[in-house]
Write a structure and sequence with these properties.
TIM Barrel, 8 strands, 12 helices, alpha/beta, single chain
């Protein structure tokens, strides 16, 4: 059983929903990313989503876009992200890690080479934001060969026929986008999320994780009532940025602590939600 499957099975047995934390590798620093990931797990993250910095992250709102910019300025690369996962795995063999990125860096790396390197590092799955299901054959073959999951986004505007196409190709879980627009945007409508999740569940038995627009314990609690997992990203990055804006001389430990505290509060909020 894969780490992702084992994690969702454990959560189901415990009657709990999963918490997925997203950060950009190399932001605020390459040297601190591994430590931040371990802290997020300790704070309640069940799955780690690690962003691969890219110069044109079109699905991201301004908060995450700036995180990509900072990481690139820090010299972070796709190989650098794989190196971070390798080091993380020296101490944690249980927590699933999903890499989220864009096609261009992976194409340049080479699909087969990336899949092999990802499996060796300890990656469990990949979200390629700008690669639609009609164009995934080459990378999907490479990922399947090393038992990595190919994870897809389904948005509020995705037609039912396209949902059926996506779930046929998806493995690991389905990432249901909670709001129209980019990450961190819009006001989350829990009723609309519930309807969208219900449609997805009618088409697949895969777990459904919901992200985009989840900013605090209240919004996480609302989503946790209908989803298998909640994804939090922009809010964590924004929490760290606010520390440096308020105190430019803040240490990296102080910056990380802001994200950790927010994630802890979200975990508490989710655990208070009836499942």
């Amino acid at each position: 059983m894969s780490r992702l499957s084992a994690t969702f099975a454990r959560l189901q047995n415990e009657g709990r929903q999963g918490l997925v934390s997203y950060v950009v590798a190399g932001d605020p620093s390459p040297s601190g990313t591994v430590g931040l990931l371990h802290q997020l797990v300790a704070a309640g993250a069940d799955i780690l989503e690690v962003g691969v910095p890219f110069s044109d992250p079109m699905a991201e709102g301004s908060v995450i876009q700036k995180g990509h910019e900072r990481a690139l300025a820090n010299g972070m690369s796709l190989q650098g992200v794989l190196d971070i996962v390798t080091v993380f795995r020296q101490e944690d063999q249980q927590t699933p890690i999903i890499m989220m990125g864009y096609a261009n860096p992976i194409e340049r790396f080479g699909y087969e080479a990336f899949a092999a390197a990802g499996a060796k590092a300890g990656v469990d799955g990949l979200i390629t934001v700008d690669l639609p299901p009609e164009e995934v054959d080459a990378i999907d073959t490479a990922l399947k060969a090393v038992a990595l999951d190919n994870i897809f986004l389904i948005s509020p505007t995705t037609p039912t026929a396209r949902i059926e196409t996506i779930v046929e190709r998806a493995r690991g879980f389905i990432y249901c986008v909670a709001v129209k627009g980019v990450t961190g945007s819009g006001n989350l409508d829990a009723n609309e999320v519930a309807r969208n999740v219900a449609v997805i569940r009618s088409k697949t038995a895969l777990p459904v994780a919901v992200g985009f627009g989840i900013k605090d314990a209240d919004s996480a609690r609302a989503v946790a009532a209908v989803a298998d997992a909640v994804v939090v990203g922009s809010a964590l990055i924004d929490a760290m940025v606010r520390v440096t804006e308020h105190e430019p001389a803040a240490t990296e430990s102080q910056v990380h602590a802001a994200a950790v505290a927010l994630l802890e509060s979200i975990r508490l909020g989710m655990d208070s939600s009836p499942s």
